[in-house]
Amino acid sequence: MPEVYNWQLGRRATYRYEEKHPKEQFTFVFNTNRCIACQTCTMAHKSTWTFSKGQEYMWWNNVETKPYGGYPQFWDWKILKMLEQSNPGQNVWNVRKVDNEKPHGVYEGVTIFEAPEKIGLNQEAIGYVPTDEEWRFPNFGEDTAHGREFTQSREGTFGGDNGCKSVLPEHKIWFFYLQRICNHCTYPGCLAACPRKAIYKRQEDGIVLIDQSRCRGYKKCVEQCPYKKPMFRGTTRISEKCIACYPRIEGLDPLTEGDQMETRCMAACVGKIRLQGLVKVQNGRWVSQMDNPQYYLIRHRKVALPLYPQFGTEPNGYYIPSRHVPRAYSQQMFGPGVDHSIDQYMVPDRDLLAILQLFRTTQRIIFSYKVEKGPKIFETNIHGKKFEMYNDTVIGMNRKGKEIIRVTVEEPFYVRPEEHPGAI
Ligand code: SF4
Ligand code: SF4
Asked: pTM for the complete prediction?
């Protein structure tokens, strides 16, 4: 099999096809600390693309409660188990080798594409087709926490002396929400698996699509996408998946007069946890663009981390891990960069705090940003570190450099004029 460079793993890795890259790559950052699991994103997607007959169990966007939830049920447990069984105890990271080409060190274990050879299997990747039962509940285990029960102490307070206090850095009782769409991977498992070559990655933006006229419903994509994001439609007997709302990404919505727009699930997010964009790619590497919010958060500050990078598909969805979740759990999910990410997020500096304000402020894609300095408004200590807040103004621009959004770090306070007390 050919070898491709996977920057998330810090090494070359096997893949079915030769290395090939788009001019720009669709990426997104989800801040898991902010999600309230309102499922507005899920319904935004559902009401746009999957409301027809045969799509009843199709949720291209879902928000699952970790550690017990999953759609389909147990999807990540199962893949992790298969990886472990193919290379017991050896799927580890070497974090001593870190540089720009290997920002999170080197993964020394096997990926889903490398595991079959390790155990003598003649197939492209390890995987499985979920059962019908596993697709039944999009949010199985909703709000179910992991850990010992809270008990009331003699003083009447919860937690107390039973070791279950909820104090940072890690809560003893915890859950968090994991938002999921197709990751429009650089090396998609679905694309590698398809015997009909019906799946392709677009040159202009890296969006991964299934050609509905070529698909014959063999479900190989369902089997070999480790994130289980292609879904089979019983009424048409072919597979479908998230299309990244490509007409919006192309700027075809008349609402914005040609400005490229975020996907529906991003634009609808109530919790302001989502920011989506495009990064430039040249010779297979991301072009350094410090004023692109995606590049800044993912590559420069390494605050946003890939979901299960060890799977080896180089997913283009990135997450700011939840700060109260046990680190070992988060590290298994987001790789070895978790401590570094949370350290920065808990005590953000001026630049990071400014850029975090851009999440879900406009439906238009922010291609670049700049910050106008404001006065210092607050100062405190967080876990022994000094934190200073400045009321800076953050300005987001479209592809042409035109201003599309302007926000301040401190949310403005409006007082309704007294002459209209009962006004709507
Ligand atoms: S997440 Fe799955 S369906 Fe989406 S591109 Fe990656 S492998 Fe394909
Ligand atoms: S809309 Fe935003 S806050 Fe609500 S569930 Fe989706 S990601 Fe979470």
From this structure: 0.94
